[in-house]
Every structure is written in C-alpha cells, then in structure tokens.
Specification:
Strand order of the largest sheet: 1-2-10-7-8-9
Radius of gyration: 24 Å
Largest sheet: 6 strands, mixed
Length: 398
C-alpha cells in the first residue's frame, strides 16, 4: 500500500538523483488567483518522471536488476527509466509509440537504453512492453500504476508544502494518474483542507470520464498534441487514489494549452510541453473555483519537440488574437493590393504573409483572392481591421 512513510523514504533516496525544483510566483500571467509554478519542466531529464522511475528501480533486488528492466512511455518516463537504469548498471528496453517526438526518443537512447518504436499510441506501446516482459523476464517499470512510482512522484507534494505552506489549491496534469495520485496523497495526508485539482486534455479524457462514471473507462482513441498525457486507460491503483483524494477534474482544449505554452514562454521565460502546460491552461481559462486563492500549478515537463513548437506558438497567437488570417475578395486591377496594405498599416497591424490567387475557379474572371496573415494586438484589433476593410468596400470571405 502507498503510505506517507514511503513518500518520505522516496524523498530521501531521490536526494542523490534529482533536484528539488523551484516554486516561482507567476505575477505576469493573467488569472484571478495568486499563481505559483512548480517547475518540474526544469527537472533532470526535463520532467517529473525521473522521480518515480528512479525510486522504483532503486528498490529492485539484485536478482531483478540482473534481468534488466522494461518500460513503455510516450517519452518522459522512458528517459527517467533509462537514466536510472544507467545509474545502476541495468539493461533497459523501452517501448515507445512511433509518434513520440524524435527529441524524446533520442534522449532516451542517449542514456544507453534500447528503444522499440511501436505503431500507434502509448497504449499500444504498453501492450508490446507487456509482451516483451513475458519473453525476457525483465522487471516491468509501469509509468503510473505502481505504488513505488507513485511514491516517487508524491515527493513533489512534499516539496510544494515545504515551499508554499499556505497554498490553497494545487492543479496537476493527469495522463494515467501517477503524478496526481502521489501529489494528492501527500498533500491531503498532511493538510486535507488543500484542494487538489486534476487536468486532462479534452482529446484524452480517460480519468475525467472514469471518475464521472465511477468506473475505469477505456477510450477508443486519443487526439491531442499533449502526448505525455495521451492515455486511453487510467490505472487501477491511480483510479482508486484519484477517487479518494482528488477534488475535481476538468479538461482543456489543445488551443487553450497552446495559449498557456505561449504565455509561459513570453511571461515567465519557461518552456513547457503540452502535458506540462495543461495546469496553467486550467488556471488561465477559469476551470476551477480558485478566484483570489493561492494556487500552485504543477508544470510537469518541458520536453516539447522543437519542430512542433513553432506550430504550437502560432496556435497560441491565433487563440489570443495576436495572429490573424483572413481572405479578401478583390477586383483584379492595379493598385488594389497597395490600397489594402495601406488600410492595414493605418490600423497598426503588420503583414507577415501574403498570397495573391487569381486562379481559383470559385472567383469571377476579373476577380482574385488575397489571403493575409497579420500580426495583431488582440481580437478587438482584428475586428477593427475587418470593419475598416468592409467600410472601404472590401468583402472578407474567410
């Protein structure tokens, strides 16, 4: 059984392996609460997973270590297991979905682990890992449904209470539920009055639906760029712990998560991956009753693939009205493009991309489409530009 003593023991063991991460007051993020960030994105390996994986492996017997370890992961648990196995001189084999970011795959290999890419999602990687475990006899290091792994993640709860003793609420990302199970158990055991809220991606709401229906549910599919929490089925143990210790779970959209990532970059100079930013998204978009409360958002990881970061930033800019795209129907004659550019310039926007299409079959012979991408200030600014273009006789068609 999970106990507070195990979490304290994990904290003692982890002193040699991880670093206590900073608690940062986020004064620049626009919310109705007093917001603090627990920066596990700055943890060794770039995510909280280093805690649970290391503690689990540290407790293996010599016989278990000799047979090696096997794990499944979307990326962060893989790095945690690989690093801990390297530390103890243990062979590690990690099954990862083939959609895992290349950066996470390469980082896992850099710690000396063998990586098997599995077609599909995390759950497909899990099934392959179970199959290989039976063949090899290696110890399976579950990413969330294991009491020692959960105890390792629970050390974050101890740190939060040490760094912010008067915290009113803690907001935690949820995939399979290992992180929030450990944090909630530690926090509630020491102070039952503190609220613990969980956040899932709207495209992968497995724990959200399971708790709502009071039984473990398996999703047919998941669809979110927050790969670290794209889990179809929560764990048996984590479901039980979340049912008992978590006050409420809500979901956030990918657009809301992208906005949170952009906000963390601009306002706090922090890089968070999608799974790590869902807690901040929940605070920004008022998912929980935390107005005027002292709130800790757990930023669980920062291992976002750099090739997708620009797309995430663009989505965040669009969500906040900082990037606008629309199409104008023009009469195809000299000077029209210049006239539109002057209107936009007078409104204080900056054109970043232009596409002038006169070959579209949906247009009149003497017409064309002008597609624009603009840097803008907010949604009100975008509307003023559209209103002025309409006032000058231009038709916006998209």
């Amino acid at each position: 059984m999970l106990t507070l003593d195990k979490i304290y023991h994990a904290s003692y063991v982890l002193k040699e392996a991880i670093r206590p991460t900073d608690m940062i007051k986020a004064t620049n993020i626009d919310t109705d609460c007093e917001l603090y960030l627990k920066t596990e994105n700055l943890q060794i390996t770039g995510a909280f997973k280093a805690r649970g994986a290391y503690y689990k492996i540290s407790q293996l017997s010599d016989e278990e270590r000799a047979k090696g370890v096997i794990a499944c992961s979307a990326g962060n648990h893989a790095q945690g297991v690989a690093r801990a196995a390297q530390k103890y001189g243990i062979k590690a084999l990690i099954c990862m979905p083939d959609s895992a970011p290349i950066s996470k795959v390469e980082a896992t290999k850099s710690y000396g682990a063998e990586v098997v890419l599995v077609e599909g999602t995390y759950d497909d990687a899990h099934d392959k890992a179970v199959e290989l475990q039976k063949e090899t006899g290696a110890t399976f290091i579950h990413p969330f449904d294991d009491e020692l792994v959960i105890a390792g993640q629970g050390t974050i709860g101890l740190e939060i209470l040490d760094q912010l003793p008067d915290v009113d609420a803690v907001i935690v990302p949820i995939g399979g539920g290992g992180l929030i199970s450990g944090v909630a158990y530690a926090v509630k055991s020491l102070n039952p009055n503190i609220k613990v809220y969980g956040v899932q991606a709207a495209g992968a709401p497995s724990m959200y639906l399971s708790l709502a229906h009071r039984q473990i549910e398996t999703l047919d599919s998941v669809n979110t760029f927050a790969d670290g929490i794209a889990v179809k089925t929560p764990g048996d143990l984590t479901f039980e712990l979340c049912s008992k210790y978590v006050d409420e779970i809500m979901t956030v959209t990918d657009d809301e998560v992208a906005t949170a990532i952009l906000t963390l970059i601009e306002k706090q100079k922090l890089i968070a991956e999608g799974a790590g930013a869902v807690s901040v998204a929940a605070a920004m978009f008022d998912k929980f009753p935390v107005k005027n409360k002292k709130v800790c958002c757990l930023v669980s990881g920062g291992n976002i693939d750099v090739t997708s970061l620009s797309r995430v930033i663009d989505r965040g800019l669009q969500k906040t009205g900082r990037l606008a795209e629309f199409t104008i129907a023009l009469t195809d004659k000299p000077g029209e493009l210049q006239r539109v550019a002057k209107i936009i310039s007078r409104q204080g926007a900056n054109v970043v991309a232009v596409s002038h299409d006169r070959a579209d079959l949906n247009t009149d012979i003497n017409s064309c489409y002008l597609r624009l991408s603009l840097e803008t200030r907010n949604h009100e600014h975008i509307q003023r530009i559209k209103d002025e273009l309409a006032r000058q006789g231009y038709k916006i068609v998209g």
